[in-house]
Structures
1.
Amino acid sequence: MNPNLSDLLTQTDRVMSGSNGWHADRESTRLSSDSVHVGVDLGTAYTVLVVLDENHQPIAGTYQFAQIVRDGLVVDFVGAVDLLRKMKSQVEERLGFSLKSAASGYPPGVPQAEVRATANVLFGAGLDCTGLIDEPTAANNVLQIKDGAIVDVGGGTTGIAVLKKGKVVYTADEPTGGTHFSLVIAGSMGSTFEEAEEMKKDPKEQTRLFPVIRPVMEKVGTIVRRHIAGRKVDRIYLVGGTCAYPGMDQVIHEVTGVETFLPGNPLFITPLGIAMNN
């Protein structure tokens, strides 16, 4: 496990909120587009852009809810390009210099044609795509675990990667994620999907909604249990924004019977790992 993980995620939270204290007029003489590492994560629910310095420390970034990807596939190419171009511009204004290149990621098992589509979104937004990495490997760039399972629960899918001696030896990806939470909430509350999304993220609503979405959490746990069966997994590491919902880690632990670890802000782990690949 990365001994600096907590500090890294705390700094990333500050960067994403714009409160990290980084000033372009002070630092731009030291940093440039050639000395930073940029990662773009085109998720089912959130698109994240993060910039790291030469020491892989976060210095700028932004993220936005957008339904441009479904189950790892880019379904709104024009919308994805427009969104990423806008996010790129926002981060460049904060940094004081242009971004030229970035790496991106993809879920396990996605067809190569769709992987190329992800690269083309970057090209369309004015970024050279200098690396494409599968999401579990990206997440482990940050976690640095040797043995166990990384479970990435995003908006649309649950990805599982089993690691032995630091290497990914098995991967799988199945539908079920945060979007399904929102659909269940909308159906139960008689609300729109957009209203359900906001309720899901509201800390004041989360305890009340927990019994409503617990069956979806249990389904995620069942998916994980099936894929790690017989693989001698002693610990599960959760990443992906959906895992931030209070109680998610306990449910996964209960269903799988395997010790489950939840980092500080699981939404940013994979984007950070993608940037480290740039």
2.
Amino acid sequence: MVDTIERTVTRGSLMRSAGATGAGLALGGLLRATPARASGVTKGDTDILVAAEIAEALAVTTYTNIINHAPFFRHLAADDQGYLRAARQEEMSHYALEKSVTGTPSPFTTFYYPHHMFKSARVTLNTLVTLEDAFIAAYLVGVRNFSNADLRVTAARIMGIESDHRTLARVVAPGVAKRDGGPIEFVKGIQGVPEKVDPPNNNGYERTLKWTHIDQAITALLPFADKTAAHKAGFDTRRAFHFHPFTPNLPTQLGAFHGFNG
């Protein structure tokens, strides 16, 4: 049963489900209707930034519920708990920065997940790495397509943090307690392939997933944001999880966003 659930969290199944519902087109239309309000930001820039806001709202919601509701979280080592808490703050900081540029909040604030999310450590970590894989590839679309150097560098700076999160999620896996189904030695990401967690930093180069346009990221993330697409992907639609924004408190100001120039 768990294997069936985990197989739904792959790029192929997400894209097929979105295509079947037609919801991807609806979301793409929503982004294209969003005005560019920040000075010097193009319509294409705003499309990417609003998509990024949706992703960051989803990320904050995911980390919040792991911390507050996942039984395995309470049994992790203190440093692993600290990673998850810091990641929540960092994702919220990304969201706030993007919202400050677009002048509009995420159009999606309710999210859905695979069955057993937050209950099963394996499903939760597979989903978390899947999301971080998607976020990395999405910000690389920004690096490729943003209209100016300030936005491209900012996308790269955020992408680096998402890469940290992917690696650290893989660090957490073998630390899952036996009572919670651990240790977890293999984790699946968005490509649906079980990858050994030793070493956790197993990428020589970030994976683009061959995404060249932000619509590809939107399609991949759609089942997390749209109930119809979630149902098609085999997600649990009986319960929705809501994004609750807050003022972030980053671990150190040396790593904060001081401006587009660094």
3.
Amino acid sequence: MKTKEEIFNGVKLPGIPMLIFNILLFFAIIGACVWMINASLSTWITVVCLILLGLLLIFNFISFIGYMQIEPNEARVMVFFGKYEGTVKENGFFWVNPLYSKKQLTLRARNLDVAPIKVNDKKGNPILIGQVLVWRVVDTYKASFNIDTTSKAVARPTQQGLTVRLLDKMKSYENFVKVQSDAALRFVAGMFAYDHYENEDEKLTLRSGGQEINEILEKQLNERLSIAGIEIVEARVNNLAYAPEIAAVMLRRQQAEAILSAREKIVDGAVGMVKHALEKLAEEGVIELDNDKKAAMVSNLLVVLCGDETPQPVVNAGTLHN
């Protein structure tokens, strides 16, 4: 019993010559019938010949079912009375045994934009995460026989050149990919924290992981979709945010961290400026300051440099001590 895709090795003839042969055979049968009726042959010979010509005409009509046209990135899964015989991926117009069931599949890449879902990250914080992925069918045997794509739609041509049955089948594949992508996305989101907070030693997070997170997600998806013969060409996280119930709190936390970080830079710069000012005054000999005066000057400069608002100057009309 076959369990994976194989190339069809049965009889597969060029379609145009076979079509010409069927048309010529049809007219030959009609001409032979007319000749047999008008010929002066015995009755039983005429009846036998007409029966044979009728059977040949029926066979000729049945043979028209054996034609198939395969466009680029399409395939036909050949089934003979329930037995898988192989897959035809060669492009062109062909004729095969009319008794073969020719299941149509498209191998073209398809997009799927997964809407953001609410999950918990490694720290237990509720987040919204979404993804966009590109997928395609790579194993026609698994895609045809390993998952259920039953549809009650009646096959009829569409403007795109595909059949309703094929569209329904690809819709079933898309639903299968969507369910498995949700499971993979939840699994990956639970493996990592949203960002570096309490644990600064966290090497990889959802926010900072970037390409590494996408590669892990793609691997998880391929493991889940291999049973259906589907390959993930590319998977990317395209939406990442805190859930609404904690978004405001986390925003204030981020703002506080940004303010603290900015304050640290301001203080570092202010201390350097004060140190430089004292050293410059001492080198130039502009004024001699004792420890009390230095302390007062340092205090005033730090207030001026580290304050949020523009300082208002105060003119001292007395001595330095009053």
